[in-house]
Protein backbone atom coordinates (compact mmCIF):
# COMPACT_ATOMS: atom_id res chain seq x y z
CA UNK A 1 0.00 0.00 0.00
CA UNK A 2 1.23 3.50 -0.86
CA UNK A 3 2.10 6.00 1.85
CA UNK A 4 0.61 8.79 -0.30
CA UNK A 5 -2.84 9.96 0.67
CA UNK A 6 -5.66 10.97 -1.65
CA UNK A 7 -4.98 14.68 -1.10
CA UNK A 8 -1.38 14.22 -2.25
CA UNK A 9 -2.60 12.49 -5.39
CA UNK A 10 -5.23 15.18 -5.98
CA UNK A 11 -2.66 17.98 -5.85
CA UNK A 12 -0.16 16.10 -8.00
CA UNK A 13 -2.90 15.50 -10.59
CA UNK A 14 -3.38 19.29 -10.69
CA UNK A 15 0.36 19.70 -11.19
CA UNK A 16 0.19 17.18 -14.05
CA UNK A 17 -2.61 19.27 -15.61
CA UNK A 18 -0.24 22.24 -15.50
CA UNK A 19 2.45 20.09 -17.14
CA UNK A 20 0.04 19.15 -19.93
CA UNK A 21 -0.73 22.84 -20.40
CA UNK A 22 2.99 23.51 -20.85
CA UNK A 23 3.29 20.70 -23.40
CA UNK A 24 0.34 22.07 -25.38
CA UNK A 25 2.27 25.35 -25.70
CA UNK A 26 5.43 23.59 -26.86
CA UNK A 27 7.14 23.90 -23.47
CA UNK A 28 8.82 21.06 -21.58
CA UNK A 29 5.90 19.55 -19.62
CA UNK A 30 6.54 20.43 -16.00
CA UNK A 31 3.83 21.68 -13.66
CA UNK A 32 3.60 22.80 -10.05
CA UNK A 33 0.96 23.72 -7.48
CA UNK A 34 1.40 25.23 -4.03
CA UNK A 35 -1.03 24.50 -1.19
CA UNK A 36 -1.35 25.35 2.47
CA UNK A 37 -3.92 23.94 4.87
CA UNK A 38 -5.83 22.38 1.99
CA UNK A 39 -6.08 25.64 0.01
CA UNK A 40 -4.59 26.17 -3.42
CA UNK A 41 -2.23 29.15 -3.25
CA UNK A 42 -0.57 29.10 -6.66
CA UNK A 43 -0.14 27.21 -9.91
CA UNK A 44 2.57 27.22 -12.51
CA UNK A 45 3.63 25.56 -15.71
CA UNK A 46 6.96 25.64 -17.50
CA UNK A 47 7.01 28.66 -19.81
CA UNK A 48 10.53 29.98 -20.51
CA UNK A 49 10.06 29.84 -24.30
CA UNK A 50 6.67 31.55 -24.32
CA UNK A 51 7.70 34.22 -21.81
CA UNK A 52 11.26 34.68 -23.13
CA UNK A 53 12.38 34.19 -19.53
CA UNK A 54 14.98 31.62 -18.48
CA UNK A 55 13.63 31.69 -14.93
CA UNK A 56 10.03 30.79 -15.92
CA UNK A 57 10.18 27.23 -14.60
CA UNK A 58 6.96 25.73 -13.23
CA UNK A 59 8.07 26.13 -9.61
CA UNK A 60 9.00 29.78 -10.11
CA UNK A 61 5.70 30.50 -11.85
CA UNK A 62 3.79 28.84 -8.98
CA UNK A 63 5.80 30.88 -6.43
CA UNK A 64 5.01 34.07 -8.34
CA UNK A 65 1.32 33.19 -8.49
CA UNK A 66 1.11 32.37 -4.77
CA UNK A 67 3.12 35.44 -3.76
CA UNK A 68 0.91 37.68 -5.87
CA UNK A 69 -2.30 36.21 -4.44
CA UNK A 70 -1.06 36.50 -0.86
CA UNK A 71 0.84 39.76 -1.18
CA UNK A 72 3.88 38.07 0.35
CA UNK A 73 6.71 36.02 -1.12
CA UNK A 74 7.16 34.09 2.13
CA UNK A 75 5.08 30.93 1.99
CA UNK A 76 5.78 29.43 5.40
CA UNK A 77 3.84 26.24 6.02
CA UNK A 78 3.13 25.67 2.32
CA UNK A 79 3.77 22.52 0.32
CA UNK A 80 4.65 22.47 -3.36
CA UNK A 81 3.81 19.58 -5.68
CA UNK A 82 5.94 19.47 -8.81
CA UNK A 83 6.04 16.92 -11.59
CA UNK A 84 9.84 16.86 -11.87
CA UNK A 85 12.63 17.08 -9.30
CA UNK A 86 13.64 20.76 -9.09
CA UNK A 87 16.82 22.27 -10.52
CA UNK A 88 19.33 24.37 -8.60
CA UNK A 89 17.57 27.67 -9.35
CA UNK A 90 14.21 26.36 -8.20
CA UNK A 91 15.58 24.82 -5.00
CA UNK A 92 17.10 28.20 -4.17
CA UNK A 93 13.81 30.00 -4.78
CA UNK A 94 11.92 27.47 -2.65
CA UNK A 95 14.40 28.04 0.18
CA UNK A 96 13.93 31.83 -0.02
CA UNK A 97 10.14 31.41 -0.10
CA UNK A 98 10.36 29.30 3.08
CA UNK A 99 8.40 26.42 1.58
CA UNK A 100 7.78 23.80 4.29
CA UNK A 101 7.91 20.74 2.08
CA UNK A 102 7.93 19.47 -1.47
CA UNK A 103 6.51 16.45 -3.23
CA UNK A 104 7.86 15.65 -6.67
CA UNK A 105 6.88 13.01 -9.20
CA UNK A 106 9.85 12.00 -11.36
CA UNK A 107 13.55 12.34 -10.64
CA UNK A 108 15.66 14.47 -12.98
CA UNK A 109 18.98 12.61 -13.39
CA UNK A 110 20.84 15.42 -15.14
CA UNK A 111 19.75 18.53 -13.28
CA UNK A 112 17.80 17.39 -10.21
CA UNK A 113 19.13 19.21 -7.17
CA UNK A 114 17.55 17.27 -4.31
CA UNK A 115 18.70 13.68 -4.88
CA UNK A 116 19.78 13.09 -8.47
CA UNK A 117 22.61 15.28 -9.76
CA UNK A 118 23.26 17.00 -6.43
CA UNK A 119 21.79 17.20 -2.92
CA UNK A 120 21.76 20.93 -2.22
CA UNK A 121 19.86 20.74 1.04
CA UNK A 122 22.55 18.48 2.50
CA UNK A 123 25.22 21.16 2.08
CA UNK A 124 24.55 22.76 5.46
CA UNK A 125 24.96 26.16 3.86
CA UNK A 126 21.34 27.30 3.71
CA UNK A 127 19.46 29.01 6.53
CA UNK A 128 16.22 27.19 5.67
CA UNK A 129 15.59 23.59 4.83
CA UNK A 130 12.41 21.93 3.60
CA UNK A 131 11.42 18.29 3.68
CA UNK A 132 10.81 16.45 0.43
CA UNK A 133 9.60 13.15 -0.96
CA UNK A 134 9.59 11.87 -4.50
CA UNK A 135 7.89 9.28 -6.64
CA UNK A 136 4.22 10.29 -6.46
CA UNK A 137 2.71 9.62 -9.93
CA UNK A 138 6.26 9.35 -11.27
CA UNK A 139 5.23 7.07 -14.13
CA UNK A 140 2.63 9.55 -15.38
CA UNK A 141 5.12 12.41 -15.24
CA UNK A 142 7.90 10.41 -16.88
CA UNK A 143 5.54 9.20 -19.65
CA UNK A 144 4.45 12.77 -20.36
CA UNK A 145 8.06 13.96 -20.59
CA UNK A 146 9.15 11.05 -22.78
CA UNK A 147 6.19 11.48 -25.12
CA UNK A 148 6.93 15.20 -25.44
CA UNK A 149 10.58 14.63 -26.36
CA UNK A 150 9.73 11.76 -28.76
CA UNK A 151 7.40 14.08 -30.66
CA UNK A 152 10.07 16.78 -30.88
CA UNK A 153 12.67 14.48 -32.47
Describe the 3D structure:
The protein is of the alpha/beta class and 153 residues long. 40% of the residues lie in helices and 19% in strands. The chain contains 5 helices and 5 strands, in the order αββααβαββα. Strands 2-1-3-4-5 form a 5-stranded mixed sheet. Strand 1 and strand 2 form a beta hairpin. The N and C termini lie far apart (38 Å).
Task: Show the helix and strand layout.
Elements: H1 6-24, E1 31-36, E2 39-45, H2 48-51, H3 58-70, E3 79-84, H4 88-97, E4 101-106, E5 131-134, H5 138-152
Parallel strand pairs: 3-4, 4-5
Antiparallel strand pairs: 1-2, 1-3
* Biggest sheet overview: 5 strands, mixed
For the secondary structure, the number of strands is: 5
* Arithmetic mean of pLDDT: 95
State the share of residues found in helices, binned by percent: 25-40%
Q: What distance separates the N and C termini?
A: 38 Å
Structural class label: alpha/beta
Radius of gyration: 14 Å
Share of residues in strands: 15-25%
> Which regions are unreliable across 5 or more consecutive residues at pLDDT < 50?
none
Strand order of the largest sheet: 2-1-3-4-5
Amino acid sequence: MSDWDTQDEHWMQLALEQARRAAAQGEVPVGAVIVREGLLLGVGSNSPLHRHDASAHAEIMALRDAGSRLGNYRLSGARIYVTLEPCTMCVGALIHARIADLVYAAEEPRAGSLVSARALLDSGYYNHRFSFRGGLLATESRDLLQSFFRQRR
